[in-house]
UniProtKB/TrEMBL annotation:
Keywords: ATP-binding, Membrane, Nucleotide-binding, Transmembrane, Transmembrane helix. This is ABC transporter domain-containing protein. It comes from the Eukaryota. It is found in: Membrane. The lineage of its organism: Eukaryota, Viridiplantae, Streptophyta, Embryophyta, Tracheophyta. GO terms for molecular function: ABC-type transporter activity; ATP binding; ATP hydrolysis activity; lipid transporter activity. It is a multi-pass membrane protein.
Length: 942
């Protein structure tokens, strides 16, 4: 098959996208469960809203009252009439009010226990002693200041009246002649004034009072008829020279503005400024501290009109005399139609649930990324040519598409089932917000995935983040947002935590939806964007998205590509200092070693010559490659690879033998980009492994020691994916996949279309070999490829590898001497990080196998006769094995002839019983053991 060349960016991106879509299709059940969670939460919110509507919104006390006006003889109601006249005071609020009631104007005054008295933290300005609170006789204090005290004195002398008359038929006019006050805070509307409708008394504020004088009266008509008690309370006017003094007194009267934390309130204050007979100019302080626990009641302004009237009336009398009065008879609301209670409880609690819904994507994406890291699938894809660019582009776009589809389904489903949270707010604002946040969330997943190496750990941590963030948002962030005294700057700081910025945006949506439903209007529109907190939220999300994405890419480059911490500062046009440098200088300590190993020395000289040539036909060239692991926990540095020089031409299979820990895996990891060499150079197809690894990967195949496969992809799908990475397309790809499956016996019986997770260990191993060879890569690394295979499968696999090496350089590690002898053109035996010998199997056996192995088994009493027999045949023979009558000896070839051994054995049989005997030439295994022992002994000695 012709070389297809390296795959383009789009080809590799297409391969990864197809693999991801196939993988996603196989996880259909998990995807359905993920989608069902927001569905169930939305349905749960709808159920809560329906229950709330039944028990609260549609309850009898929360709608206009009705009574049966016509009853049949059987006692059945035939006609029901509804209206304010049939309603209780609570129900009257919801009735149609064509002509709202007229309420006498009330002045907001502090309750008796909160009225201003003399305290340690407030200078003596004429306030009464605290003992008045025990008797309930504390006056209502009003402060005055201005540029002209004489004018101020005249005004506050005219402020109050001394008459009390409520016997007239026009009750409102009689009450208007008095200054009425209430300690009950105003409501959102004034259709039913709480000061009148409550059981609290109405205070008549006067300059002088007979102690606690009271006057009962009736007000209104059924059902809004109230029996009230008019209680006299004395007013205290105090002049201050400067407005700043007034401000100080008012602030210290606020319970959070004084050390004792108790209310010490002033009813009102007036700054007369430059008021005189020709100019009336006044500033009014009024008490707006009354609230319902979450925000100031806008109804507080209903009380302000009385304060304005008092000082205006006083100024009029100052100009015209006490006979001129400006009465303030009543205040009334605008007419209203019949209404009903429309509290959207689903929108109020929506931020908690919907933050969970959006954040639920975090553990899903994170676990997917960590799974690729845990199973080392990312690195195996990279080794087969998938560059960082296609991986990041497709992975990001893939997760973004899933997340976008997820939030669109959420918005559509929430709107269809009737949640005002989605229906009332502008869909374009919602989608933009969700789209920006899922981009931030994906970037965070890429960044956080570098911290975890296990899927279970990442999943548990992610779900703790999801549910913990939602609860903290609901019980901490929302509380702080609603606390007007909490600094806004700190709110922005908290919103830098990504989950809090999500919660804040959802909170704004919920508030607009709640108010819109209450008023029968729309929710958030683009015109409301800057009036809410959404502008700052959008800015935070966009900036954090950019920062998280850059940080994730930076960390990925360092962790997966082995880049330096400051790699971005290096000149991309400057060639690496490690590229193709001649290895002519060698340390003197190496001379003895090289003289003792002429084959290794010859290979080193060959590499030196190749490094001087501008081009070479050798696919792999390693020049003095060295790897040193730094010392840890007090241990010295570990020299894993000791200056390896090796050249492997195309069409050769080079076998690496060696005991465990010899350095074979470290060498393979350096050549495949998993480890960075401490020193030396490695060239693959003329490309340096230290600076051009991304280009090296496009012509490389790897069969790792442990199978790195997707459990939910079939064998065919694996080969299609890796074939596309090798730039195979169309019918050529299909043919290559079919041939690969047949070559490793995975084609017939439906095995090719069976999930890899259900393969046996041997089947997975065969698939890994097929993956490494598909696309005819120029260089292939195989780490014990036949491990776990039965003899028949092993022989077949060897045939496949032997056929594949025609145009490929293969480096193979194995512990099977039979496999090494069958497959490898040359062998190298590694011991303690160094190459001890190199050559083809016959050369090695000839070089290191200069003896025969003689074995004989007799009874125990004849073991001495066997030793004497061997001494006669070969005086320099060496016993290498002895157990239960069986003995093995090494016989130097130059001392014996095979015919003499046979003659000696036949003679011995006549003297004692010989159960078994044998004479064998040296095997490759014997060579391996001998070289390994010699190399270890030499390294220990040196």
């Amino acid at each position: 098959m012709a070389d297809p060349g390296p795959a383009s960016f789009s080809t590799r991106a297409n391969a990864l996208l197809r693999k991801n879509l196939t993988y996603q299709k196989r996880n259909l059940r998990s995807n359905l469960w993920i989608i069902m969670i927001p569905f169930m939460l939305c349905l749960f919110l709808v159920a809560i809203q329906v229950l709330f509507d039944t028990q609260v919104n549609n309850a009898d006390e929360n709608r206009c009252g009705c009574q049966c006006t016509v009853t049949s003889e059987a006692g059945k109601c035939e006609k029901e009439s509804c209206g304010i006249e049939f309603s209780s005071p609570d129900q009257a609020f919801f009735c149609s009010i064509a002509s709202p009631p007229r309420w006498p104007p009330l002045l907001q005054i502090p309750p008796p226990e909160s009225r201003a008295v003399r305290t340690s933290f407030l200078s003596d300005i004429g306030l009464p002693d605290e003992s008045c609170r025990r008797t309930g006789t504390c006056p209502v204090t009003i402060l005055f200041t201005g540029n002209n005290r004489s004018v101020g004195t005249s005004l506050f002398d005219n402020l109050l009246t001394s008459s009390v008359t409520v016997n007239s038929s026009d009750l409102l006019q009689d009450l208007a002649n008095n200054v009425l006050g209430t300690a009950r805070e105003a409501d959102f509307t004034n259709y039913l004034d709480p000061g009148i409708a409550s059981n609290d008394p109405i205070y008549n504020i006067r300059s002088r009072c007979i102690s606690n004088a009271t006057l009962p009266f009736s007000f209104g008509q059924k059902p809004l008829e109230f029996q009230k008690e008019l209680r006299c309370v004395q007013e205290l006017n105090i002049w201050r020279n400067k407005s700043i003094e007034v401000n100080d007194v008012i602030f210290k009267g606020y319970q959070k503005g004084n050390p004792e934390g108790k209310a010490n309130e002033i009813a009102a204050a007036y700054d007369l400024l430059n008021t005189d007979r020709n100019n009336f100019n006044v500033h009014i302080w009024y008490n707006s501290t009354y609230n319902d626990g979450s925000r100031n009641r806008p109804g507080t302004l209903v009380r302000v009109s009385r304060s304005v009237n008092l000082v205006s009336n006083a100024y009029l009398q100052f100009l015209q005399g006490p006979g001129t009065r400006m009465l303030f008879e009543y205040v009334k609301e605008m007419p209203k139609p019949e209404t009903s209670l429309r509290l959207d409880i689903a929108s109020l609690i929506g931020p908690l649930f919907f933050s969970w819904v959006i954040l639920l994507l975090f553990p899903v994406i994170l676990s997917s990324l960590v799974y690729e890291k845990q199973e080392r699938l990312r690195i195996i894809m990279k080794m087969h040519g998938l560059g960082d660019g296609p991986y990041w582009m497709i992975s990001y776009a893939y997760f973004l598409a899933i997340s976008t589809f997820y939030v669109i389904i959420l918005m559509v489903f929430g709107s269809v089932i009737g949640l005002n949270f989605f229906r009332l707010n502008d869909y374009s604002i919602q989608f933009t917000f969700y789209f920006l946040y899922v981009n931030l969330q994906i970037s965070l997943c890429f960044l956080v995935s570098s911290v975890f190496s296990k899927v279970k750990t990442s999943t548990v941590s992610a779900y703790i983040y999801v549910f913990g963030s939602g609860l903290m948002g609901s019980f901490l962030l929302q509380f702080l947002i609603q606390d007007s005294s909490f600094p806004r700057g700190w709110i922005i700081v908290l919103e830098l935590y990504p989950a809090f910025s999500l919660y804040r945006g959802l909170y704004e949506f919920s508030q607009f939806a709640f108010r819109g439903n209450l008023r029968g209007a729309d929710g958030m529109k683009w015109k409301d964007f800057s009036d809410s907190a959404m502008d700052e939220i959008f800015c935070i999300i966009i900036v954090e998205w950019f920062v998280a994405l850059v940080a994730a890419y930076y960390v990925d480059k360092i962790s997966s590509s082995g880049k330096d911490l400051l790699f971005f500062l290096k000149n991309p046009f400057k060639k690496s200092s490690s590229m193709r440098r001649p290895s002519l200088q060698r340390q003197g300590s190496k001379v003895f070693v090289e003289m003792e190993k002429p084959d290794v020395n010859q290979e080193r000289e060959k590499v030196e010559q190749l490094m001087l040539e501008p081009s070479t036909s050798h696919a792999i060239v390693c020049d003095n490659l060295k790897k040193v692991y730094p010392g840890r926990d007090g241990n010295p540095p570990k020299l894993a690879v000791r200056g390896l020089s090796l050249a492997v031409p195309s069409g050769e299979c080079f076998g690496m033998l060696g005991p465990n820990g010899a350095g074979k895996t470290s060498f393979i990891n350096m050549m495949t980009g998993l480890l960075k060499p401490t020193s030396g150079t490695g060239l693959v197809q003329g490309l340096d492994i230290c600076s051009d690894m991304d280009r090296v990967y496009t012509s490389m195949g790897v069969c790792p020691q442990h199978d790195l496969l997707w459990e939910t992809l079939t064998g065919r799908e694996h080969l299609l994916f890796y074939g596309r990475l090798k730039n195979l397309k169309g019918s050529v790809l299909e043919q290559a996949v079919e041939e690969s499956l047949k070559s490793v016996n995975l084609f017939h019986g439906g095995v090719a279309d069976k999930l890899a997770g259900k393969y046996s260990g041997g089947m997975k191993r065969r698939l890994s070999v097929a993956i490494s060879l598909i696309g005819s890569p120029k260089v292939v690394y195989m780490d014990e490829p036949s491990t776990g295979l039965d003899p028949a499968s092993r022989k077949n696999l060897w045939t496949v590898i032997k056929r594949a090496k025609q145009n490929t350089a293969i480096i193979l590690t194995t512990h099977s001497m039979e496999e090494a002898e069958f497959l490898c053109d040359r062998l190298g035996i590694f011991v303690d990080g160094g190459l001890q010998c190199i050559g083809n199997p016959k050369e090695l056996k000839g070089r290191y196998g200069g003896s025969y192995v003689f074995t004989m088994t007799t009874s125990s009493e004849h073991e001495g006769n066997v030793e004497k027999l061997i001494q006669d045949v070969s005086p320099n023979a060496k016993k290498i094995y002895h157990i239960a009558g069986t003995q093995k000896f090494e016989l130097p070839k130059e001392e014996v002839r095979i015919s003499e051994v046979f003659q000696a054995v036949e003679k011995a049989k006549s003297n004692f019983t010989v159960f078994a005997w044998g004479l064998a030439d040296t095997t490759l295994e014997d060579v391996f053991v001998k070289v390994a022992r010699t190399g270890q002994a030499f390294n220990v000695f040196s």
